[in-house]
Amino acid sequence: MSNNHLIIGLGGTGGKVIRQLKKTIERSKDAHGNSPSDARFEFLYVDTSRDELDKKEEWKVLGKEIDLARSQYLINEVSSVRPVLSDPNSFPGLKGWIEPRSVFDLFMATTAGAAQRRKLGRLVFAQNASNFVKAVEDRLAVLESGPGGKVGAVIHVVCGLAGGTGSGSVVDAVAQIRHKCPDANQYRILIYAMLPEKNSRRVKDVAGFSPYYANGYAALSELNALAVGKYKPTHLLDGSRLDHDIYFNGCYLVNNINEHSIQFEVESEVPRIMAEFIFQKTMNKEWEGLGRAEKGENDIKNFESEDGIGKARAKLFLSFGIKRVVVPEQEIKEFLAYGFAEQATRQLMYNNFRQGEGYADEAIEKDWGFEARKPDTLQSLLLSDAHLTLETGILEDDARNASWKPPREYWKQIVSLQVPDIKADKTIEETNWIHVLNSRLAKVFDDTYRTMGGVRKFYEVKGNARLEMARHIGRHIEKELFGRWKSGTASLIQLRQLTDALVAMLDERLELLTEKLTKMPTEMQAVQTRIAELSAQFNKVGFLGKHLTDKRGALFSDIGTQLQDQYILNTSYQGLKFACSLLPFVKEQLTALRGAIDALHQNLAAATEKVKLERAARLGPADAAYQKRIFDQNAIAGILKALITDEAAQAARTQRVRQTLIDLAGTDVDGFDQLLQGISLGSVISTLSQESAQIVEMAHAEIAKTLPPVLHVNIVERLQKKYDANPSGLKAFVSELYDEAGSLLTFNKTEVDRSVANNAGGSRGRTQTIGVFLPECENQKDFRGSLAALFDAQKDPASDTKVAVGKLSNQIVIMKIASLMPARFVESLGELKRHYDGLLADDKEAILLHGEGDGKKLPPLFARSSAEVNAEARRKPYLLVARLLGMVKERQNKTTGLMEWVFSYISGGLPKVVVLKGKGWTDIIEGDHPADVQAAIEKEVAKRIDADYKHIDKKTELRSAYEQLVLARFTDSGEDDQDAEFLALAAMQKPLLEIVGLPAQDD
């Protein structure tokens, strides 16, 4: 058997099963990414909607994306069929079955999906059939050409039968695959078809007639007809008829209620079970009975026959059941990983470790207002007065400019140079010293300060760069705070609180600086008054003061000091004005920074809630019906506590998580805004989950040296601990497992037990095959041997049961296969037929139910009773006799002028005419007429013969008329005694003579 497996999902159900199978495959891998299965999988998903693909979060396992590649799906849009409907002759694969096109009129271009109409689903698929065939070829080529690949594959076609997309395309999909891969042994095709669920929420009025249920019956009818050779579908690429002996090897039927009446959720549980079954059976290849069941090798006849039909019902339908006893390793791992992930996000957000508890979800209390006002803090964050007033440069070029000095230092240096220089200059009269000094200082203030045209000009020019300076301060603070968070020394909530304190401090600073600014003119006036007083004294100095005491020189020095203070104040005044205008810009930057920190905090808070929900969803008390979990909740809790309460280890682990999150946005990230631009909530959750899973795996290996392990535990060991001293309990446990591994299908016991005609040599009822997969266990070889023997002893004596070695050490798997079933065994088939028959009465609905025609020529899914067989055998002869009697005849419709066939008879003494459905005699004789019309024909024919054809001569006239009709057909066919119409007429001889009342003709 090939290890190549191509999973083809048709419609929403197919997409769900593919997703669950990819999850199952991913979850089965070990820590190194190795799979326990030798199976090589490829996927192809075909749908009319992207709904399943767009559920991005559902295509993940512990944050790892497992979504389909672009080459693994086809989305066929309904709107693309409009050109086909307008010009069907240009599409040879469609024109033979697309009529009547009028049935598609109610479906507009905006119709979503296939609108639960099989015919529309087929039309959409057919128009894209060439793409489908190419995609299948491509996926098979990938399987067969890859490392270890061999020619051949098992092709699994998964779909639902209730909707329009999967149900409407499954027959053509199978037919096209088989045409491309004609060797049914080398390329086995298995169908997994989900039947419409009972009381579906998609059906508003279950009591009426719904396509949702009718589609199921119609699809089964076509699949059955395909299997018995009674339906040869059109080759969608060229319009020819396909003809293969074996289209599919088997068709698994699945329902949401199993044979023990246990109900499963349709959207999630059933696809998960189907995926689990496909994975398990492809992994456990030692199960020979499975191959026999899927090939129908347990019976000499894989069909039921009926008179007049031949092969009528294929016995290629199967059902399956699966039961797992499992140490839920992946679930435990996810529980631990999500538990650690919550701790990691708490550290990133709060960094509040509590001994014996781990990281808390609340902040550490601290006086951030005091922290924000510390001189060291202000200096390091470029928020000191010196920075805000540009005593010190803010922008990098300004900060590196060595000529920039604080006003006090600057003006002190200028005055200390000018005063002695003026005194020493003999060309300057002493009485002009003050004027010269003031003039020189004014020139510096007005023209040369910091080489930018004076103080006012300097601040005017720098005022144009306030936004750049504010951004630089904001970026500097962001890098500083990001560095603290990156190193793990500060949490997001701490940084947010510090930022809030800085913003509040800026508001306070602006108020204080504004107040100081308003007081400065008074200070400046006081200095000017002092200068005036000293100048007056300077000018009054006499000869003695000038030549004997140098009083004027001393006064000049004092005046220089006062002028120095004046220019310091003037410069500081401009600096304060600048600072007051700069602060709002800085505040805006810090507010934006606060927003970035908060946004990251919110992302992590949302991620925390997500992982909390995910953890809560793991290891719940209730087991799914298809599995029984065995695990030690206390041991798991012990491992988790040991994991989260090791402070030193947790610091290192959470640091690893933090760095991985930062790396999402790039290795050069140094700020919160930059980080936010490179991540999303989805990527945070994914990365957090994946990293946590790896950390848990490594941490468990260390912790398990001192505590009981909860990962990599053998199920046999678990059962040995539980049942070694309780053999009767173990026996009951094994028996219960066999009982619970029920088929995912409810059976109609009456139909299962029914003995049908023409089935000589064939099997009766279901054939059951069971596989039990029990892993090896080196530590408990004896118990494992006893357990295997117990499974063998407790098996159903009527089943083909194999106890084999399982490949997954953490689980025991029981799979049951019911095979060699005709579709009539399905309990819900009768209800599906009720809806089908109800819609079949509407001509348009009948056409929409089937890919071709109205389905009336397909073999019946239920075995007909003797009375039904006899009635069917007499239907055509009665119509023929009615024609010979002139009761069924062709006439011209007086209104339309077109020819029509009618049935006319006398009712209540008055003539009555019924227009029959059909354009020609072939339509009349082959068509199914309403039951009341057929009954009336048979009744009136019998009355007419009894009234007017009692005499033998009259009867002989009818026989002669029949013979002439048969001979005329023989002549028209070119005397071809194998002509289908001639044979059909000839076959009616015996029942026709019985109706007329004549003995059978001798040869």
TrEMBL record:
Pfam family of the protein (one): Tubulin_2
InterPro entries per UniProt: Tubulin-like (IPR025904), Tubulin/FtsZ_GTPase_sf (IPR036525)
Cross-referenced Gene3D superfamilies: Tubulin/FtsZ, GTPase domain
Domain of life, source organism: Bacteria
Name this polypeptide is given: Tubulin-like protein
